[in-house]
Amino acid sequence: MFLWLRHEILLQGLLERLASGEVIIGDGGFVFALEKRGYVKAGPWTPEATVEYPEAVRQLHREFLRAGSTVLQTFTFYASDDKLQNRGNYVEQKISGQKVNEAACDIAREVANEGDALVAGGVSQTPSYLSCKSETDVKAIFRKQLDVFIKKNVDFMLAEYFEHVEEAEWAVHVLKESGKPVGATLCIGPEGDLAGVSAGDCAVRLVKAGAELVGVNCHFDPTTCLKTIKLMKEGLEAAHLKAYLIAQPLAYHTPDCNKQGFIDLPEFPFALEPRILTRWEMHKYARAAYDLGIRYIGGCCGFEPYHIRAIAEELAAERGFLPVASEKHDAWGSGLAMHTKPWVRARAQQAYWEKLVPASGRPYSASLSKPDSWGVTRGDKDLIQQKEITTENQLKEMFEKQKIVSGM
Ligand SMILES: [Zn+2]
């Protein structure tokens, strides 16, 4: 009986699961997590670890699955051919985009089959778009990844991390060719995309392009992302359009961000740790997202498996079960009742952790930073793609510009 039920769950696709009222839980930001483990280089942020260190990618998928993820995204972030051969990153020549994408699909499927998770084939923004290449050229880049996703039969498609809705529309058009469900998330805040399109209009355009699931990922903290998704929801309602909503924010607090998001924070990417959300803050995010009507709730950069577990634990009553990893985590710190020290046993209660305002431990640390705000985006000469490594002169020019902008 149990096996039969499990089989039936496996046969259900994303849209059937969402239509039945199931809350889908996403996974976390692989590039950030694997960079910290030593398998991804900050800078290019490309996922050749799928070929070089498949066991590291497999293990992270397993940890997210165990923590409660019902979707495993293929580790194909920035795995477009143009990104794999950008600024001295010669992955395309050394390994090939096809191999990186194929390995990502195989690993995600292998682990997804260990539970009842779905596999999402993901594409993201391209240097070609930022370099003002044509719609035909940019679409051809996405289509190469899509060919692999179709061959490997992923369950649905996700276009994520787009700063410009126009490029996301192009990605959705291409992904729709698969006939599978398509989700689209922009990495924008409440101010809208980098071309000045409002969040509401972005959502409308993505649904009109064919996306069944729309929302935001990356670049901003959960609070800001939910504000943006609320605007998207209102835009869709005003246009009498329907779509499922998806949130995959950062696990970093970013109230001081401008339109460009956490990339502009001076701490990006090597000193963001003081901003990490606690598991208890993730409970609040999960509840707020659920109350807003979002039914695909996950994370992006900064998310570790324990953050996803917190989402699954907060929504355990709605979903009807706890994740496997809760075997080692009793609700709201109650496992501390087993602690040796009495004052720690006194913390084995929800009221304690819910009220706690954690200290930073940094006596000279400011609460907020001033974003860089260079205002550079698509069409700027400094964003043009080049295959060759960044030269010393090009770097010097950037160092000088930084001095002027920051007033040093
Ligand atoms: Zn991210």
TrEMBL record:
Zn(2+) binds at residues 218, 300-301. Its cofactor is Zn(2+). Residues 12-315 form the Hcy-binding domain. GO terms for cellular component: cytosol. Keywords: Metal-binding, Methyltransferase, Signal, Transferase, Zinc. Pathway: Amino-acid biosynthesis; L-methionine biosynthesis via de novo pathway; L-methionine from L-homocysteine (BhmT route): step 1/1. It comes from the Eukaryota. Binds 1 zinc ion per subunit. One of its GO terms (molecular function) is betaine-homocysteine S-methyltransferase activity. GO terms for biological process: L-methionine salvage; methylation. InterPro entries: BHMT, BHMT-like, HCY_dom, HCY_dom_sf. This is Hcy-binding domain-containing protein.
